[in-house]
Design goal:
The chain is mainly α and 936 residues long. It has 35 helices and 2 strands. It has a two-stranded antiparallel ribbon with strand order 1-2. The N and C termini lie far apart (154 Å).
């Protein structure tokens, strides 16, 4: 394109006469490229290699674009022969060597020019550290001419090399051409064996990627383009140069890799032609492999052609043929229905399935040895075979068995699924990995087994939960039914001789009517409604019952006679259940008394530790079966873990809500209905409270059993996290414990009320008026000691508080003891205000207060002890003689003496209970208030 533009001709000018004016009128126009460099670079990527090198000759700029190292690195990367790490390492080594060489050159020049590198000592001997005087040549004409001449020669040789040798022009593409006499070395075409390893000699060097690519192109391009021009499978020269199938497969694999960098026009047709030729070759090799497979020529044709297919494309076609046509799938090792047919009715037998899996494991390990002999390193053929076995053998074995077991019996179905799954896990552990198996072979085997059972896991887990729920509810329903039947049997036995309409009367009124009758009216065997459970000695004392050991790790507490047994309709083995007499009572009142006694004795059987034990055993079996699937991991394992927690939650709900809670509510109801004034004997304590405290012991054992069960079955096996307060199992366990504490607290609260009623009743009935106000003593013999009423009160209260020791939480026990002590203090104060105390009777009162104080001290509650210290000090005011009224007034008004427990007004009220109060009243009031009675 011309860069000159003619100037316009002006009118009046003389064209052609003045050349200088014409040149001045000429203007220069800058010429620009038609396309940007980015687009040109992209176009170069899609040019064939010969056209690309021809394009490089057009200009220096195009030469630089074509020879750019990144362009050839990209092609090597596409073929997978460029190692960036190796290239970086080589580049760093080259830079380091260049720096060392430059440092050596500078040192040599410094020595030649006489400049000391280290600053040596002076030559004139004037001391150390002086600089040596030298003559420095600033310019040497001879040296500069020599350097310039060498630079010109190097540039000329580079231009000559660039125009004659570029890595491609000197390479002959004919098979019979002579080797070029150029510095670039390549694999000679006369040595086809060397071309089979062309990729192994490629180096990753920055700045030399074009030369490395040239070696590959020179070796493979002739075969590649010859194969693309072939019309049939006999035309390609590759099949004439290489005769062995191994070499042909190797070269075809190389051409497949080489075809990745073919981006020029027509690349799709060339790639399709290559794939067609490879397909023809692969089918021929596959036929040879199949012939060896049919005659089971393991070390002959099978091994040879499996290696050929492996070199060609990984050998997937041969592996597929080996797996699909394997004779193992035509054998019938066992029939899954034998597990049902050989078992009893409604049962399942897992021995046939175990034999089947053992035989299958032996077969697979044999095939693993054959796979090691036949197939080359690379693809994991054994894993592919195992996937096929799982799909066509294992799933076909277990699916009909599970379906049939589910239709026949749910229990058999649950044991079949969990049992065969566990056998399958052991089956996977017996399989031996092959030489091509990866490190995660065990995990892959487990994943294969998981795929076999995955279609059945959801149904199994739901059925497991529903089955346990039905079993637990049936257990509790059976318990309740036996209780009701036992109660109905006793009632029918005792009341069978009388009118049934009497049963409609109120329970308490009947009970009151019975116990208020004279004792001699009733038969001796049932003289007291409480005589049966308490008159005879118990096999295990209350104290021994408190120290009953916790359940063992196996969740089976040691059997003791104090444990309530599952109620039956006949006599109990350990004597806990009252046996029916040989003959029914002939008197209606005697019959009702016996019936009431049996009902009170039945408080102990309101819930049973054996029922709890049966439920925990059922839950343990269900959780252990479901927990097997947790090891599968993933979503299936998480669902199995959640189902295990759901089973535990159901256990607590059924055991707590339907069994323990109902039992405690009935026991509290019995306590509410207790009236000590309707009981004829009070020697053994409060009967309903005693039985309730025994029930607390049973509840405590059940709580310990649940705690051990949770720790062993859920926490220790990582099925639940005890530190996660949002975990369903943790929440259910805390809710169960809270329910148990609330029921026990409610019962103890009601029990304290009943106990205090009993205390008040004993005080009212056993405390004689002459205890604290005796007749005047004439003979001088004074009996000093607590009264019978006080001794009875202490015995009753002490027996009940001791029963809770070891069976309840210490905090709850402290609260219970403190409440009992405070209520006892209130009852004693109320009782004292109803008495008349003389000076002679004050000794008995002081003895009683000392007895109460000694008992309270055993409770080890200092706050509570202060109340009874004050009560003991209060009893001293009755010992003061009437003539010492002033001292009595000082004691009454001394608030510090009673530690703030009693105010002066309250002490004054107690002082009014003195037998001689009206004698000393005026003197006491005058001393206290300074007033007295006067006559106006």
């Amino acid at each position: 394109m011309s860069s000159f533009k003619r100037a316009p001709v002006h009118a009046g000018g003389a064209p052609g006469n003045n050349v200088l004016s014409t040149l001045k009128a000429t203007s220069m126009i800058e010429s620009k490229s038609v396309l940007p460099a980015e687009i040109i670079s992209t176009i170069l990527d899609y040019l064939p290699i010969p056209d690309l090198l021809s394009f490089a000759r057009t200009s220096k700029r195009m030469l630089e674009m074509v020879y750019e190292d990144s362009r050839w690195v990209q092609r090597l990367k596409v073929m997978g022969v460029w190692n960036e790490g190796e290239a970086r390492r080589r580049w760093e080594d080259m830079v380091r060597m260049k720096r060392e060489r430059m440092r050596a050159i500078h040192e040599e020049e410094g020595r030649r020019l006489g400049i000391g590198v280290g600053g040596g000592g002076g030559a004139n001997g004037n001391g150390t550290g002086g600089m040596r005087k030298t003559s420095t040549t600033l310019f040497d004409a001879g040296v500069e001419e020599e350097r310039q001449r060498r630079s010109v020669e190097v540039s000329k040789s580079a231009v000559a090399a660039r125009t004659s040798v570029d890595g491609f022009e000197t390479l002959s593409l004919s098979a019979g051409g002579n080797a070029p006499s150029t510095p670039i070395q390549r694999a000679p075409m006369l040595d086809p064996e060397a071309l089979l390893n062309i990729f192994s000699g490629v180096r990753s060097i920055r700045g030399f990627a074009r030369q490395e690519y040239g070696k590959i192109y020179a070796a493979l391009a002739p075969f590649y383009f010859d194969l693309a021009r072939s019309r049939s499978h006999i035309d390609p020269v590759i099949f004439r140069v290489y005769r062995d199938p191994e070499q042909q497969a190797q070269m075809l694999a190389h051409l497949t890799v080489f075809a990745r960098n073919d981006w020029a026009q027509g690349w799709r047709q060339r790639e399709e032609k290559l794939e067609t030729m490879i397909g023809i070759f692969e089918n021929a090799v596959l036929r040879e492999f199949e012939q060896g497979f049919e005659v089971w020529d393991v070390d002959g044709k099978m091994k040879r052609y499996a290696h050929v297919l492996g070199v060609l494309n990984g050998g997937h076609a041969g592996i597929e043929l080996f797996v699909q046509k394997h004779p193992l799938f035509n054998e019938r090792l066992s029939n899954s229905m034998e597990c049902i047919n050989q078992a009893s009715v409604g049962g399942i037998l897992l021995d046939p399935s175990q034999e089947f899996l053992v035989a299958l494991s032996k077969k697979l390990n044999e095939q693993g040895d054959i796979i090691n002999r036949v197939f080359p390193p690379g693809e994991d053929v054994f894993q592919i075979l195992l996937d096929k076995v799982a799909e066509d053998i294992l799933m076909e074995y277990v699916t009909p068995l599970f379906d049939e077991a589910h239709d026949r019996n749910i229990s058999s179905y649950l044991r079949a699924v969990s049992g065969i799954f566990e056998q399958s896990i052991r089956f996977g552990l017996t399989l031996k990995p092959t030489k091509n198996s990866k490190e995660d072979f065990a995990e892959k085997v487990k994943a294969v087994i998981a795929r076999v059972f995955e279609p059945h896991v959801d149904l199994y887990l739901q059925e497991e939960l529903d089955y346990f729920k039905r079993i637990a509810e049936t257990e509790v329903d059976t318990w309740e039914k036996k209780l009701s039947e036992q109660e109905a049997t006793k009632e029918s036995f005792f009341m069978g001789n009388f009118n049934r309409q009497a049963d409609k009367k109120d329970f308490l009124s009947s009970f009151k009517k019975v116990v208020m009758m004279p004792v001699n009216v009733l038969p001796s065997a049932i003289s007291s409604p409480f005589g049966v459970p308490f008159a005879a000695p118990k096999p295990v004392s209350a104290q021994n019952r408190m120290s009953m050991p916790a359940p063992s790790p196996g969740l089976v507490p040691s059997p003791t006679p104090s444990r309530p047994q599952t109620p039956g309709l006949g006599p109990s083995i350990n004597g806990r259940t009252t046996p029916l007499p040989s003959e029914a009572p002939t008197d209606e009142l005697a019959a009702k008394a016996a019936l009431m006694a049996s009902r009170l004795e039945g408080i102990r059987s309101l819930f049973s530790i054996e029922v709890a034990l049966d439920l925990t055993h059922s839950a343990k079996a269900s959780i252990e079966r479901a927990a097997l699937f947790v090891r599968l991991g993933g979503q299936t394992g998480e669902e199995a873990r959640e189902q295990c927690e759901a089973i535990f939650v159901q256990l607590l709900q059924i055991l707590g809500t339907r069994h323990v809670k109902v039992g405690f509510d009935k026991a509290v109801d019995h306590l509410s209905n207790y009236n000590p004034r309707e009981v004829s004997e009070h020697q053994q304590g409060v009967a309903p409270l005693v039985t309730f405290l025994e029930l607390v012991n049973v509840g405590d054992l059940i709580s310990q059993m649940i705690d051990v069960f949770y720790e062993q079955q859920l926490a220790a096996t990582k099925l639940a996290d005890r530190n996660d307060f949002l975990d369903p199992a943790v929440k259910a366990k805390k809710k169960f414990e809270q329910m148990l504490d609330e029921r026990v607290a409610a019962g103890l609260n009601k029990g304290i009320d009943v106990l205090m009623d009993e205390v008040e009743y004993v005080c009212a009935t056993l405390q004689m008026p002459t205890d604290y106000n005796p007749a005047p003593i004439t003979n001088g013999n004074v009996e000093i000691g607590p009264t019978k009423a006080a001794q009875q009160v202490v015995a009753i209260v002490e027996s009940h508080t001791k029963m809770l020791t070891g069976s309840t939480d210490k905090n709850m026990l402290d609260v219970f003891n403190q409440e009992v002590g405070l209520r006892l203090f209130t009852a004693l104060c109320k009782h004292l205000k109803r008495q008349r105390v003389s000076t002679d009777g004050a000794l008995a009162l002081i003895s009683d207060m000392n007895l109460f104080f000694v008992y309270i001290r055993t409770l080890k509650n200092n706050d509570l002890l202060e109340y009874f210290k004050a009560l003991r000090e209060l009893s001293q005011i009755y010992l003061i003689e009437a003539k010492h009224a002033k001292e009595m007034a000082e004691v009454i008004a001394d608030g510090d003496r009673f530690r703030g427990i009693f105010r002066a007004e309250e002490v004054y009220e107690f002082a009014e209970r003195r037998a001689d109060w009206y004698t000393v009243k005026r003197d006491v009031e005058r001393a206290m208030y300074g007033i007295g009675c006067g006559v106006m």
